[in-house]
Amino acid sequence: MAFFTSSFSLLGAPALSRDVSTPDFLIIGGGVIGLSISYELARHGHQVALIDKGEIGREASWAGAGLLPPANQQHAWEPIEQLRGLSHRLFPEWSKQLEAETGIDNEFEITGGLYLARDPGEAVSLRMACLQYEEEGVEVLSLDAGQVAEQFPHVQVGEAVLEACFLPGEAVVRNPRHLQSLEKGCRQRGVQLFPQIEITTWNFEKDQLVSVDTSQGRFAPKAICLAAGAWSQRLADQLLDQGHFAGRIQRPEIEPIRGQLVLLDAGKRFFSAPINEGIRYIVPRRDGHVLVGATVEEAGFDKSTTPEAVEDLASFARQLVPQLAAAKQVRAWAGLRPASVDRIPYIGKLPHLGNVYLAAGHYRSGLHLSPATAVVMAQLMSGQTPEVDLGPFRVNRA
């Protein structure tokens, strides 16, 4: 692979000249999806380059809480459930492998997860979700108010709980540490990582992408994959705004959905299972920190937090878990989740383009689905048959 000549810079990225880089695959986007695809492709001996407009692993992937709901691939019929099941099987394997290769513990842990509903509408939704889990062979323990009080004494709901269940197979991972292990694992497998690069021009011969010009040089891969999260829509539009593509290709529809989170410091961990209620959750960490999230907001690409949302999340946590009343509020942040219109990710080839792929739109499940997305995308890009039917994930599925 003819890469840009020169040694590594102090930041760990190769210093670029104006030579042409010719990797097998170019991955655009350095979040958990892009890193995972690069890691998997490199495992199979492919030469991979990854570029990102910012720092590696610093957007929605970093901002999330690391919840990994259970799934069962053996009993999953729908492709999205098969994808979840594959990820559920792969995550512990990847975590062990990454720690062995990099020495970084991503703090993967099967903790189980408590799910509560005090609102009638949320109770119906939770009941339906539990039934679906059971149909897929996932273990579900239904609880009444008394059992919640007995088994989870730190949770204060009283008789207000209308529906509750415990999922023993739920797991957690610490997002920043997982991203650090993936980044280091990619480097150790020979993946070239280039942060702080802007794409300027896409160069085509008919419907084949032949090269990509960037602010720091040209890449001429055999194929590329757009995996830039909420920014994938902009990249796809930029790519497809070429004259000979006009009106011919259905475009993906991905919008950013802001999620605000609050970090509390309880001093020590006094409960281990995350608590989920509706769209909100409370996730304890091993070091005594507690993550509370998350809002669901259409705010464009604004990643700022709001005092109202931060206060609402902190109050939710302290009301539900009274022992958190004394917990110090450390900080708050927001991430932009990449949401497709139907909340199903795009995984596959862009229509009518010979060598351009897309893996984006995972919404709130990017981290959870990242190992499975990496495996099926690596299979597809390598000319193999993916082990999950990717028809429902195609761009022109509507």
UniProtKB/TrEMBL annotation:
UniProtKB keywords: Oxidoreductase, Thiamine biosynthesis
Q: According to its record, what are the GO cellular component terms? A: cytoplasm
Enumerate the Gene Ontology biological process terms: thiamine biosynthetic process; thiamine diphosphate biosynthetic process
The yes or no answer to whether the keyword Oxidoreductase is present is yes
Please give the Gene3D superfamilies that the UniProt record associates with this protein.
D-Amino Acid Oxidase, subunit A, domain 2 (3.30.9.10), FAD/NAD(P)-binding domain (3.50.50.60)
GO molecular function (one): flavin adenine dinucleotide binding
Which residues are in coiled coils?
none
One Pfam family recorded for the sequence? DAO
Top-level taxon of the source organism: Bacteria
Kindly indicate where the leader peptide sits in this chain. none
The chain positions of domain FAD dependent oxidoreductase read 24-380
Pathway info:
Cofactor biosynthesis; thiamine diphosphate biosynthesis
What NCBIfam families is this protein classified in? thiamin_ThiO
Q: What is this protein called?
A: Glycine oxidase ThiO
User: From what organism does this protein derive?
Assistant: Blastopirellula marina
